[in-house]
Structures are given as structure tokens and as C-alpha cells.
Amino acid sequence: MKILEYNGLDTSRVKASYRKVVEAIARDDFYAAQVKKLANLSHGRFYRAKLDDTARLLFTLIRHGDQTCALMLEVISNHDYDKSRFLRGAAIDDEKIPEIGVDEAIREAQPVRYLHPERTTIHLLDKPISFDDTQEAIYRRPAPLIVVGCAGSGKTALTLEKLKHAEGEVLYVTHSAYLAQSARDLYYANGFEHAGQEAVFLSYREFVESIRVPPGREAGWRDFAGWFGRLRQAFKEFDGHQVFEEIRGVLAAGAGGVLARDEYLALGIRQSIFPVELRDKLYDLFEKYRDWLAEAKLYDLNLVAQDWQRLAAPRYDFVVIDEVQDITTVQLALVLKTLRKPGHFLLCGDSNQIVHPNFFSWSQVKSLFWKDPKLAERQELHVLTANFRNGLEATRVANQLLKIKHRRFGSIDRESNFLVQAVGGDTGQVALMPDKDLGKRELDQKIRQSTQFAVLVMRDEDKVEARRHFATPLLFSIHEAKGLEYENIILYRFISDHRAEFSDIVEGVARADLAVETLDYRRAKDKSDKSLEVYKFFVNALYVALTRAIRNIYVIESDTAHPLFALLDMSLGQVKVEARQSTLEDWQKEARKLELQGKQEQAEAIRRTILKQVPVPWPVFDETKVIELVVKVFREQAPGAKMKQQLYEYATCHDEPQLAEWLVSEARFEPAKNFAQQRANFGRKTYIPYFANHFKDILRQCEQYGIDHRLPMNQTPLMAAAVAGNVPLAEALLERGANREAVDHYGYNALHWALREAFRDARFAGGPLAALYELLAPASIDVNTGDRLVRIDRHLSEYFIFQTLWVLFKSRFTHWQRRANGAFDTQAILGTWQHLPANIVRPERNKRQHLSGVLARNEIHRDYAYNRALFMRVAQGWYQFNPGLAVRQRQGDEEQWTPIYKALNLPLINEFSRTESRQSAGWEQLPEVIDHYLTLGGLQKRSVPIATERAVALEQVRQAELKTFSERLQAVLAGAAQPNLSWETKERRRLEVERLLREMEERKKR
């Protein structure tokens, strides 16, 4: 087999043995190379070969066509499999690894879409990547770079590989939050790290927040459409879509500032969508728009970018801007202000994917990044023409559309003149179908249960008609479809509903004009013709729609004789549609994927129409339910043992020892005396099935109630699988779309449940935790330090410290501690880390000196350039979360910043906190500490725990009585001290004093 090498492979210490082993593998002699397969790994198939007594060679197999290749990945020294960046902390015993034959290994080889015929160096993100010659040439060029490429050209993968070589603080920014998160996950896949680099991956909105968090919420098209609809009568001459894009792309988009009225009126014909005579009135509308934003507490990212220019400062040593065509000039200018070194940037995008007229051009981008106009003109753009995603027929039709666009409107700029070459895809089909009810019904019956088919329409308002004929929840407008891909795409009435616009687009274009294989640079003849900006949305929308399909496209139109179809070489014919019904598991995964992409409407439609999920039939003991129980049991003294038993089960599951004590002392529930002995086992009562190896019933429940339904103790199934240490079940749940960031009423997610168990159980820490951590740890934590976003990425030291303190937070108040100050010291933290595997806490980080340094450098008011202000110092060596922090919490497509003590639910923690401390007088008392933290966090003052209200009331009565007796005693004593009293009177006073003292003692004992 052919030998390939990962570009990060280092064999310098084992050159001779490496060469010998590789030669054996190349001739398929696994016996000579002593190859064994590493079993029980869910994230890939890995093999090891023996280099010498202590060193092992890790490799995997890939297949391209009929050729199988061995990809050499890593040399593992001293049998330290747990330190392998590819094995993710898996515990592997070298003596127990099974042998494997070469034939079996070849059958399991991972298929790849492209493999360079000669080059043997392989790049690695989440999967192996082989660059073609164009990609390789760009990869080797130094910054600055501008890369132009179509959908599926591999430009993001190339960009990320380039980013790996940057030093210092680096920024990857793009318009889409989903793309930014996906890029981050690709970048750090398979354990990649660069010691000399700190990379941050942000959507553009998150980038703005990292400078300063704007107040309110970002205004979107739907917000605008609702507002514009109310003004429709006064502005009848304007189309809402065009107004929205004129505001976003012209009035507020310039790097020189928001256009004043006279500047707007003076724009040239091709610099605005609207004619000069309408602009004055449109500017009136723009002013109303700005007033509405303020009233509605919304913001426009362009306007924020204008205001934030004065706040931005150089910070990043290297910047990557992906999908640059979606970012306006003023937004780019703001990014540029954060760049430390001129020229240390990489831009990539595709102007053919602009689905709104924002007047983007590569020449404008170059002028912004190269201040010298002549220098900007000379900058070369590097074009990726290969398409590794779409089928051959889809690519052919998309190219025909580009030819029509070029012939009709001329070149947008020199850099956008290229056609696409399909590489490695299926042929597929692009079929034209008549808009007939019978055909639509048959098609709907085939596709409605398949996740492999999506229906696209031009605009949001077109979805109403499409829903009348197609029951699939996978229905998108073209704005929503950006960034999506499906095996099969149905385009519904793209042309017929916009017949006039597409007729204008093809006007004057003949079939003979399209008989070209390349696009020459030529400008439009009529300089006053601004039709490109008006029609760009329609032609680009069709192009984006065509490139969403991996294999097949079905175009449903009533006007099948429209001249566009002849130019695209599309005609009516026999159409065969094959659709496989997807499983409920497939739909669960699809719903979660869409939710992550911000497509909440479609995700909810899946759950409503396909999954048909119903509420759970059992009570869920969330905060509301628990407080109801506490009121019934302690305040109202409800009779019977059922509610007390439920509270006891809650106490054992959530580790609430004080609640158990109060159940004994205040509710006379004797079984709670056994809390310490029963906590571990009794606390699992409601999720015992999650410990089993067979979990089909659990997965069926997830289909019935939802993948993130709540168990009786307010856990999600993923939380229960995590605390049970059931790695296969956790994998199955995540595969079906379980949300690893869902939290319970204490702010615990699935990772926190697993960590809490590991912190008190060494076997759990040394066993399933390593694999669970890789599965469950969120990529990052977003905190608001009071005015700006700080993203704590998973590879940073601060990340795991933050997660550790989050897990330990509640126990500072509910369990006995060395000091009752509700804070952490290094001793407490290191104590919980002592049994953790190296993939979670590296040995060099698991030291007091390192930990103290990280805590100190992130302390509020600390003078340190990279201070994230995460902690406040309570006392020398004692820390707590900065009370001014807020964490980002997501609920569907809604996001909000929640104060950290509210997210951790300190008010509820107070309900079950210790009310006394074991320290001597003069030390802290927890109630006062909690009250102090609540005040610092901007929350309501502490209330008396409900469970202690009766005891507190009785104590207050007792104290009042004692005070009364004390006052009487003082009065008697004062009278006894008066002179000239007879002996009989003195004796009577003495006896009264003694009686009062005895009564006081008796009352104290009550």
C-alpha cells in the first residue's frame, strides 16, 4: 500500500526503525511490522506498529478509489498512549491490543474524496486532507493573501492550515457563528495545539462584543420587516428588501462613516439601488430606522461598527477573515484596527455567493487593506476553481449561470472571473419539473420523511405557498440556506415567481455567447446601467441554491419555457426521484444541527411534525417543583411521608447534606439520618438504567420525549449518562443531537455532572472520565466581564480552572470547608485534580505554582496585559468568581447574558446552605458571606431558608423571652443593691433572682 505522512509527524528520534517498519507496511506485511488495532475507540480507526521496545508508530488507513494508503500520524514514546494527541486520553494496555490482518484493515479504510497522485504529505483537520497543486501553492505563499473560491473549494480548510503557522494572538472571524464554531472545531480536531499561538474564533457579532458588548439585541430582517410593515402606507414606493439592503449596504456600510443626507444624494448612479429622486425620502426612512432601533433596544452591526472604531486597538498578530463577501467595508475596517502588524492577514470568499446587494467588490477590499492605490491594484488574488462538494451536473448548470451573469452584466471585478471544476463528485442530475399538483403530491410523498431532501424558495414570504405542497420541515429561504448542504435540493418557483427579473437577466444573451470555457475580464458597456446591483440578488440566489446540492437538483416551475432554462440546457423530461425514509435518529441529529446553525424554525418543525415529542409523564424536580415541596414539608408541615421522601431523593441526587439534616430535625423524617451512607447509591435511584450496557429503552424514550427531555431530578439523558460513566450511551446520545450545553437548575451541564463524580471518586476519574471529557467539554466559555466578551477556549489553562470552580461552587456553601468564606484556595482545587488524566489537566498545569499564577493573573484589577478578570481575591490565597461576570446562555435561538451568581443559582444554594460554621469566633459566618456575594452580584438580599423558618421563628421568640427575663433580672438586681433594705426584703430579692436564673436556663435548653 502507498505510504502517506501527516505533515506534523516527527520521526527524528527513530529514523532507522521508522524506515524499516514503513517498508514492511508498504508491502502489506503487518506481521513484520507487528501491527495491532487499537480497539474501543469511537472517533476513528487507529493502528500501532512496533518501532522498538518502548516506541510505537500510530497510523490509520485511508482509501481513494481502489487505492489503499497508510497514513503515518505519530510516534508514541514509552508506551504513553494517554499522551497521544490522536487517542484523546484513552487508556490502552499495550499487552492487550489485538492483532489484525492486513485484509481486514484494508476493508475498514476511511474513504477520501481527493488524493494527490504524487504528493505524499497529508494535512489533518477532522479528517485527512490532500491539497491539489493550486491549494499547495497558496499554502506555501506568505501573507498577506486573498483567496477566492467557490462553495466546496476547500478554502476554509486551506485557510485553517495556513493559520496553524501564525504566531502570537490570532483571530479567525466570519459572519456566521456556526461557521466560526465549525472552523474552531476543525482547527483543534485530533488534538492540535501550537504553543506559541493563542487563536480565537469569532462570528462578526462576537468580534464586536469582544471590543464592547452593545446594549440590546441585533436587529434582523424579521425585526425590520415588522417595523417597515407599519410604515408601509407612507413609503409605498419602496420595496422592504431593497430598503433593508440599501441601509445595510450603502448608508451605514462605508468605512468613512454613516453617509450624511447630502453625501447620499450625491452618490453616483451605480453606487445606490435607488434613483436620485427617491433618495431624499429614503433618507427620511433611514432616520426613522435609527430612532426605532433605540426605542426597541435593538442595534445594527454596521452602526455599532461605526461607533466602535474609537474603541478598537491593535491586539492581533494575525487575522483571517472568512466569507469576506458577507462583511461590509466598515466592519472590515474595524477588524483592521485590531491588527498589530500590517500585512499579517488572510482573506477568503466568493462574490458569487452574495445574496444581497451590498456593493461588494474585491477592489474595494484591496483598497482598504492596502492604503496605496497602486499597491492595492498589484495585489494578486489566488483563485481556487476546484469544487470537491457538488455533483458534475450541478456544477455544469452553475457554470452556465455564471456565464450568463458575465455576458449580461460584465465582470464585477477581475478576481471574480472564473468557472468551477467539479472534482471527485457524482454525476447527479439537474431536472426541470412542471408545477403540477399531481407531480408535487408524488414528490412530497417521497421526500417528506427524508433528511436528504430540502426545499428552497427565494424569500421568506414564499414559504407560505411552498408549505401548501411540501410537508418536509426542511424548507428554507435562500438567506437561510446559506452555508447548508443537502444530497438533494428542490428549488420551488425560483424563476416563475420572479419571471420579469429573470427575463431581464437573460435579455440579449444567446446560447452561442455561452460556448466558452473561461471568462474574460470585461466591464459593462453602459456605465449608467446599475442593473447588476438590482438583479444581483436573483442571479446570486439561484447560484447559491444550485450549489447547496451535493448530488441532485429538482427545479419545479410553472413557466418551464422561460428562456433561462434553454440557456442552462435544462428541459422537461422523465424524472426519477429516489428517496430513503430517514430514521428518527436521523431526524434528531438534523434538528440539533439546524439548531446549532441558528435555524430554529426548521428545528422546531422537525420536533413538532416528525418526532412528535410529548412531555414526560413524571414530575420533574426543577427549582420550582423543589421549592413547592420545601414549602409543603417545612412551612406548611404537610402530613405524610411521600413529599419528605421525594425531598430526600432530591438531597441524595444533588448532594444536599444540610437538606437531609433538616429533614431529620425539622420534619422528623428519620430515614434521612442515613444520608452519608445512602447518598452514593440512593442518589442514583432515578437514573439506574443509565448504568446498563444495553440502552435501547433509553433511546426510545429520547425519541418519544425528545433527546434533551428531563429525568425526575431535572437531568437530561446526557447528564445521567455522564454521571453514570456510560461512554457508549453518551456517544449515542450525542450522535442523535443531544445538547452538551443544556444545564440543570444549578447551572450544571453534562460535563459538570461527570466532573463532580470524578472529584470524589478516584476510580471514575481514572476510568471513563478521559473519554467523557473529550465528548462533553464545550469548545469554549463566553463571559462578559462587564463591558466586553471574553472567550475562554478549551485549550487554555483558565478553561479547566473555570469549569472546576463552577462544579465546586455549590459545595462551598453546602458542605463543611476549612474556612466558611465561600471561596477556593489552591489546596482545594489541587485536591480535586489529583486523580485526573493528563488529557484533562496536563502534568505541568497540575502544580500549585502554575495554578496560583493563573488565578492571580486573572484577578480583578490585576495589572496584566491578558487579564481576563475572571476572579476576585477574597483573602490571601482565596478566590471566588468575579461577581461582575455574566455568562452567555442560549435557549433556542435566543441568547442572554446572565449574572454568574444567578447562573450558578446562589439564591437556591442559599436554601440548602450551612447556617453555622465550625470555626471559632471571629471567623466568617456563611449567611453573611452569601448575603455579601448576592449584593456584589446585583441579586436580591439573602432570605432565611424556608426549611429553617419555623426554627428561626421559635429562636426569635426564645431570644425575646430571654431578653425580657434578663431585663427583669437586671431590675431585681438593681433593687437588691439599694441601701436601707430590711433583711427580709433582701432575702426575698435573692430568692427571686435565683428563680429567674433557673427559669432562664430552662428556656435556653428548650
From TrEMBL:
Query: Ubl conjugation among the record's keywords?
Result: no
Q: Which residues form the signal peptide?
A: none
Q: Where are the ANK repeats?
A: 713-745
Keyword Coiled coil assigned: yes
Q: Which UniProt keywords apply?
A: ANK repeat, Coiled coil
Coiled-coil positions are 577-604
An example of a Pfam family matching this protein is: Ank_2
Q: What is this protein called in UniProt?
A: Putative recombination protein RecB
> Which species is this record about?
Candidatus Accumulibacter vicinus
